[in-house]
Amino acid sequence: MATYHLTAKIGQKGKAQPHAAYIAREGKYSGSNRYEDLEATAYGNMPTWAEHNPAEFWQAADQHERANGSTYRELEIALPRELTPTQRLELVQAFITQELGEKHAYQFAIHTPKAALEKGEQPHAHIMYSERIRDGIERDPEQYFKRYNAKNPDKGGAKKFRRGNGMAEVKAELSEQRERWATLQNAHLEKHGHDSRVDHRSLKDQGAKHEPEKHLGGAGVRDNTKKEKLLEMRAAQIGNTHAQAQAERIIREGKLEQEKRKQEQQKAQEKLEIRRKAAERAEEIFNTTMHELELKRQRERAEEKERLRTPAEWEKLANDELVKIFVEERGEWRKGENKRLLGEAETIRAQAWALKAEEPSKFGGLFVTKKREKWETTCSEKLTNTAH
Question: Which member of 64, 67, 200, 232 lies 3.0 to 4.6 Å from 178 by CB, making a disulfide possible if both were Cys?
Answer without folding.
Answer: 200
